[in-house]
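Annex B. Sample input.
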Amino acid sequence: MNRFRKRIVWLVILIGMLGIGAALIFRSDSGGSTSFHTVPLKRGDLVLAISATGTVEPEEVVNVGAQVAGKIVSFGKDQAGRTIDYGSNIEEGTVLAQIDDALYAADVAQAKAQLDVAKAGVLRAEADMGQLQARLVQAERDWKRARKLGPSDALSQSDFDASQSAFEVAKANLAVGKAAVVQAQNSVEQAEASLRRAQQNLDYCTIKSPVKGVIIDRRVNIGQTVVASLNAPSLFLIAKDLRRMQVWVPVNEADIGSIKAGQRVNFTVDAYPGDTFYGEVGKIRLNASMTQNVVTYTVEVNTDNSNGRLLPYLTANTKFLVSEKKEVLMVPNAALRFSPSPDQVVSDSRGALGSEPQRGSSASGEASDEERGGQEDEPRRGTVWIPADSLVRPFSVVVGASDGSMTEVQSEQLEEGTLVVVGEYQPQDSKPASGGSPFVPQIRRGRSSSGH
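Annex B, continued. Sample output.
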């Protein structure tokens, strides 16, 4: 038993010594030199674009509402004979829905009756006028005879005056009769207008499509009561032609100056992550909007949707193509941001460029307005670092345009395939903040001149 315990003790001691030796070996290895992360210079096409997020919209949408109040009692049929619903293809004049028309039909019947009464009133007024006209003729004859006789033994003064008065009254009554006829005729016109209004309200109970298109939204159900007061309630949303779509893109005021009508645009949608769609700028809406002190303008991008893949209201990630450069030498922006420590630079170049990028380079590889000092004609310069054994050597380059990840550079000393440093690998002595394994080498980005 004692022999077995001794063996266990010696085994524990041996394991401990092996652990200490491994720790010493790892510590000695961790003090080694760092290695640089490099990428080759490449030549290709550099596309300068403005990125923004927009929404796919039908090119023309018609909102169909109700002009009368009532309960929805039925829906119409589409071209295929199916009940009107989302995605139904319809023609102009297709019945979309029917509102309960009982009250409006009663109004039409009442208006028709009032029209009949008004027409009868015209007939009566015309008949009365005929009687009055006949009385005027009789009174006129009596008055003529009275004037021939004059006041005499054959015709007393009172009878003479009575004939004259009767004639004057008959003329006045005829004028009244004519006015009554005109009034009755106007009553007919008023009744006809009331009938047309009642009939129109009755016709409004049948909701018809004003255009040919596709139903993209149905906002009512059978049995639902629509109330039309100050605003017409929306019942259906119809897209006239889904073969032509638009992307409505809010663009920041800082970028809107680079966008013009007819400009090429490509965009992607999450529904088809591997596909790219193309379009062109149709117009820029002038009614800018402000959100949190940021002014944006809505840009309409026209695109062809003959295959029907684009659906309304998809989110589109758009890129407005500002310019494109062919076969230029490019480096990642990280290569222009990298800055080694002084002891990593080849000794014969420390006095020339040192460990800091040249004046004119910035963290993004582009010169700032303050650094350029308003001299737009002067080329922007930057520095890239080329590995030289375990150290790096600086090379000055002329910095061109950038697409946000790659930057155009020009240099007589560099060519396609030349390795440039974008960072450095450095073993970590302690557990990294990210929680990764301390035995895995970590990439350490070089320090930039701005201290970021």
